[in-house]
Amino acid sequence: MAQNESIQALTEQEYKHGWVTHIDSDQVPPGLNEDVIRLISSKKAEPEWLLQWRLRAYRHWLTMKEPTWQKPKYPAIDYQSVIYYSAPKPKKQLNSLDEVDPELLATFEKLGISLDEQKRLAGVAVDVVFDSVSVKTTFQDELKKAGIIFCSFSEAVKEHPDLVRKYLGTVVPFTDNFFATLNSAVFSDGSFCYIPPGVRCPMELSTYFRINSAGTGQFERTLLVADEGSYVSYLEGCTAPSRDENQLHAAVVELVALRGAHIKYSTVQNWYPGDKDGKGGVYNFVTKRGVAEENARLSWTQVETGSAITWKYPSCILKGDNSVGEFYSVAMTRDYQQADTGTKMIHIGRNTKSTIISKGISAGHGDQTYRGQVKILKSAGGARNFSACDSLLLGDKCGAHTVPYIESSNAGAIIEHEASTSKISDEQIFFLRQRGLSEEDAVNLIVNGFCKDVLNELPMEFAVEAQKLLGLKLEGAVG
Amino acid sequence: MNTTAAHPFAALTPNPPALPTIRDEDWRFTPLKAVTGQAWAAPSAAPVKFDAPDLGGPRLVFLNGRLDDSLSRPAGLPAGVTISRELPPLRQAAPERPFVALNAAGARDGAVIRVARNVKVENPLQVVYAGGDGAAFARLRLELAQGAELAVAEHFTGAGRHFLGSVTEASVGANASLKIARVVADSAQAVHIAEFCARLARDARLVLDSIALEAELARTELRIELDGEGSQCDLRGLALARGHALFDHQIHVDHAKPRATSRQLFRNVLDDKSRGVFSGRVIVRPGAAGTDAQQQNNNLLLSDDARVDTKPMLEIYADDVKCSHGATSGQLDANAVFFLRSRGLGVDQARALLTFAFANEIIEHIAVAGVRDWLGARMGERFHGLAQ
Fold first, then answer.
1. Is the pLDDT of residue A103 over 60?
2. Residues of A with CB below 8 A from B289's CB?
3. E strand or H helix at A414, and its extent?
4. Minimal Cα distance from B334: which residue of A?
5. Is A140 left (phi over 0), alpha (psi -120 to 50) or beta?
6. 3-state SS assignment for residue A103
7. Choice between A441 and A197, residue whose per-residue pLDDT is larger
8. What is the pLDDT, as a whole number, of residue B385?
9. Is B330 in Cβ contact with A415 (below 8 Å)?
10. How far apart are CA B280 and CA A59, in angstroms?
11. At what angle do helices A48-62 and A178-186 cross, to 10 degrees?
12. Beta strand residue intervals within A227-364, DSSP E
């Protein structure tokens, strides 16, 4: 039937952001040992304490086993064949867009996120991470006026070592899990952000990650500290060029929301998902976690449409009384993409609240799992959680799974979880067709409506991109 | 896995399988201290006191894992129903299920009940498993031919500290119907690890109620294979835990064929320092179009020291399905308690009434009438002041 044809069209659609930018990279040889870590550290002129931290992480990593409990399956990764550091050749300090490598600018234009346009839109400062080193930071001056620090991680290590040292590893310790520990040992760069007490960040902060050099693992590390009573909205968006070999991406994001602070962290992820036979694609194994102190609020929003495997659980540790955690997610898998994503809400403080809204869309041979944990400790009297996880199946070869863990040790806590799985009903399609919509438009409309609760949570700039992405992914699929 | 030299079941079977620990995913919330804390011996020959109703119909009584002829009453069955005392081979002994393997090695006695084609059994058949000390195993097999109908009440009971590892396997033929009520009402030191497996053929129906009232540890694994088109299963459970009890329900429903229906409703009422565990898994196989699966788990925590761990899972590989699950956890609604108090009820009475209402939604739907009435009376005793 026509719907199946549309779904087939969707499944067969090629990745639109597939190209390779030719920029000379400064690489270390593949493989991992203490010398490589020392080399990375010295290339970045890091202080001794950070080198020691990396080495402790590496030594701990050697004692760890790669986890196997996850749903996605992938061929064993040879960690000795990965290039752990790659940086665009150093260029002189840049002050304006004109000084940026024109090829790089062209890349961004292809992605439809030209810095020019972003500047004109105003309110968006972009810390561009191209491979592993930040090349360009905009709106620095404006942020400086508000006392906000927003820079690359390596710059922060140089300029604000006390802040970095105070918070690095406090949310995701270097012993946390296999991939976070690997990241702690070899992270190349990332973003650092500090919002001073009582400051409301005047613009949405954003950073675009790209994976470029062939065979380069990307090990980003983001540390975001919102001091007492401050507010920040942070956007992270990704696309990566076509590759035949799998690329490992093991990032770590740490959020610290001090008393009364509010952090909104949004992600749109559209990395290369592999071709229609499941060859290639990015492995996106990310550890994201935030700690909320008293009255603080953490909000994760993600739209995951890319990567061969997406495996991440952005989490909230609700430590302080009255703190709030939120998780809004849309994940779309098609072809042979796999996603195992969800969240953890750990309620420690009294009257803590959490909300989980997860929407999964699976097409072709796509397979996805919502895996989440809501844990109420004995100390969390009056805690409240609501979770809703819905899955939409397009085609009979895909899979959708829901694995929530609910653990309550406090009688005063109220927890609700609901989940449903279904396909788009023939009646819905028929109704929209009858109103004059093509089948493709109808599917698009239904999918967009299905995701509305999450897309509404995105900042305006991102909501547009996210909708475009979903539309693009559904292109060729009837309504 | 526990590989220390002193295996708790070493005295009962030569090569006991390694026991799981909380590091095993399926046992993550169920510590086995009550099992591993001692070396189990074979039960003594001392007489066993137990608490189970006599529904007046046919009845089998296993005392310490042995079928007791003097207490059993395999009479009053229509033609076409046979009860044979034999140890049926286990249909499947998966290595990842150590207590099934333990039963395979340790069971000495069992029974097989066969119901012939289109035979409908009016009176429910009672099977009582009673223990007094030591560790015992039992095995029961139910075979319903096409169009047969049978109701079974399984009572897990006894006195003192004892262990029972039971396996019940059922095969329900095309268009046949099996109703089963399982009740754990034992001493507060008893340990029950039970497995119930059923395979349903085309248009077969299974209604199962699993009630846990008293034990130190009671874990029931239900594995239902909806292996025929249009088959249905309706699973309900209630755990009323107090003291240090841990009651655990592990449900696996496998939608292997199209247009099958499954319903799950499990409730935990947890008082004192008790723990409740629910893990429900629904698998929809590729090609199982028209599947309709619902799963619901509600938990009521009456004490700040009680704990619940729940894991409702859906695993779906087909698109034309209607699957949903829900889970809730909380305490009694303060407004509801206030309302009842404003009508003149004491706070204890108000709480008891609301708790009773929550639990009774399972009890009043129990499909085996005799068990429903008996439990109704027990509930009245439990929620003091409500009996009158």
1. no
2. 396
3. strand A414-423
4. A412
5. alpha
6. helix
7. A197
8. 58
9. yes
10. 39
11. 150
12. 231-239, 247-249, 252-257, 262-270, 282-292, 297-304, 309-312, 315-318, 324-333, 338-341, 344-347, 353-363
Cβ separation of A399 and B320 shorter than 8 Å? Answer: no
| Alpha carbon separation from B91 to B78, B104, B171 (Å, rounded) | 27, 10, 10
A-chain residues near B324 (CB < 8 A): 418-421
B327 touches chain A (CB under 8 A): yes
Are A422 and B323 a contacting pair at CB < 8 A? yes
Mean pLDDT throughout B35-59? 87
Q: Do A398 and B311 touch (CB under 8 A)?
A: no
Question: What is the value of ipTM here, to two decimals?
Answer: 0.84
Minimal CA–CA distance to B49: which of B65, B64, B70, B69? B64
Residue that is written with structure tokens 């939604």 in the block: B361
CA distance B259 to chain A (A): 14
Eight-state DSSP code of residue A3: H
For residue B217, what pLDDT band results from cuts at 50, 70 and 90? very high
Distance CA A127, CA A157 (A): 16
Quote the CA–CA distance of B365 and A214 in Å, as a whole number.
63
The yes-or-no verdict on residue A95 having pLDDT over 60 is no
Nearest by CB to residue B329, choosing from A395, A396, A415, is A415
CA distance B321 to chain A (A): 6
Q: Look at residue A112 and tell me if it is in a domain.
A: yes
Among A139-153, A417-431, B270-284, B364-378, name the one with the lowest average pLDDT. Answer: A139-153
Amino acid at residue number A437 = L
B 278-297: CB under 8 A from A: 286-287, 289
Q: How far apart are CA A410 and CA B305, in angstroms?
A: 7
What tokens appear for A102 in the block? 């024109």
* Residue A479: inside a domain: no
Query: Residue A70, Cβ neighbours under 10 Å: how many?
Result: 14
- Let me know how long chain A is: 479
Burial grade of A205 (CB within 10 A; 0-12, 13-18, 19 or more) = buried
Q: Is B112 on the interface with A (CB under 8 A)?
A: no
Q: Give B319-357 pLDDT, tens digit per residue.
A: 888 899 999 999 998 999 999 999 999 998 899 999 999
Domain, as residue range, for A151: 2-474
- Reduced to 3 states, what is the DSSP secondary structure of residue B182? strand
Give residue-wise pLDDT tens across range A154-184. 888 888 999 999 999 899 998 889 999 999 9
pLDDT at B113: 95
Q: What percent of chain A has pLDDT over 90?
A: 30
CA distances A412 to A351, B327, B354, Å, are 9, 16, 16
CA–CA gap between residue B99 and residue A347 (Å, rounded): 35
Under the banding of pLDDT at 50, 70 and 90, the label for residue A6 is low
Q: Is A149 helix (H, G, I), strand (E, B) or coil?
A: strand
Confirm whether A78 is domain-assigned. Answer: yes
Q: Specify the number of domains making up chain A.
A: 1
Interacting residues of A228 by C-beta distance below 8 A, sequence separation 6+: A197, A198, A258, A259, A260, A261
Phi-psi region at B379: left, alpha or beta (left = phi > 0; alpha = psi -120 to 50): alpha
Q: Which is it for the CA torsion A141, A142, A147, A148, positive or negative?
A: negative
Say if B309 is an interface residue toward chain A (CB within 8 Å). Answer: yes
Q: How far apart are CA B138 and CA B168, in angstroms?
A: 8
Q: In whole angstroms, what is the distance from residue B186 CA to residue B201 CA?
A: 34
- B305, B316, B335, B355: best to mutate for the A interface, most A CBs within 10 A: B316
Residue A462 belongs to a domain: yes
